[in-house]
Amino acid sequence: MSDPASVSSPKRLLSLDVLRGLTIAFMILVNNSGVGAWTQMHHADWNGMTATDLVFPTFLFVVGVSIVFSTDARLKRGGSRAMLAWHTVRRAVILFLLGIVVNGFPYFHLDHLRFYGVLQRIAICYLIVSLFYLWDRRVWTKIGLLVCVLLGYWILVRWVPVPGAGMPGRDVPFLDKDQNIVAWVDRQLMPGHLYEDFPAHNARDPEGLLSDIPAVGTTLLGLLAALWLSGERSVKAKSLGLAAGAAACLASGFFWSIWFPLNKKMWTSSYVLAAAGWSLVVFALVYWAMEQRGWGRSGGSKALAWPWLVFGSNAIVAYMISELLAPAIGLVHFTSAGRRTDALAYLYMHIFTRIPDPGWRAFAYAVFYTALCFPPVWVLYRQKIFVKV
Fold this sequence. Notes:
Blueprint lengths: L13 H18 L23 H22 L4 H24 L13 H18 L3 H21 L21 H9 L22 H18 L5 H22 L12 H24 L6 H15 L1 H16 L3 E3 L2 E3 L1 H8 L7 H15 L1 H9 L7
Antiparallel strand pairs: 1-2
Helix pairs in contact: 1-2, 1-9, 1-10, 1-11, 1-13, 2-4, 2-7, 3-4, 4-7, 5-7, 7-9, 8-9, 10-14
């Protein structure tokens, strides 16, 4: 048997599944932390970056990594590029529609139904990057596109005048919350259908159309990491390469942020690099532990990895459950102490409010809700059912 630290193995990358599981679990956690949660459990108000701001880009990064291994595996099994392209389009459409279901559930008010969203952005980035990789698998073309989307987005946001406001940095502050080209385009295309919709003249959406451009860059960075891992080199060299990539992305991202601030809601180019840097830090650590050191395959380390493998094996299902469960429970009302309530509100009032510190109270509830989403995914994992849309 070959030494796992010196020769790459064709087996499934457990580290990728664990990273995906960690990401989706943290996404559920922060999406349900509520009022009073610690600063790091909330998105930055505008410029800046918290731990919560790293969750979505890490998931897009994982999508980019997965594209390489999934596409290569299908091609090796004899799949044609045409068949894979059709599968990619079909999957992207389903993801987009699932995103609309999440946004509209349970009432689906069409007058203000939001068409942008998390799953919609995943669908768009997956479609573009996956089809590009199918068409051309060379590394330099991916680097070229990455440079184009990051520089192009900076030029767009910095040098294109905002209609009715003027030139950013001269007539209106650069990256002004309300008067920027990204928000302006969304207000023209989707009036009344944006995440932050009132007042109408200040409406904006964190997953708007133009900010899909740099989000494609986030997915490309994941794809480039996967191309590095799929090469003929030792596992140790791959671990070091991920660490070096993390350092390069963090340094370039924070350096660029001097002129182009980190901003998740506009998905700025500096944010793309810095967030990918942190994604690579976590990926490098998990890859080193699981692929180089062999952790997570037996004994106590396997038990530690198990919850994240369960979440990561059906990540989209876990996300859908987390987004639909609370509003579904909210449809079932009952009366307690003369007040109309539902099961989650009842538990919060009678259990979690006993925790005096608001930060720990919010964290405890978020952990409880994340755990509540686990059993359905565990059943699928136990039955070896892995839902691929």
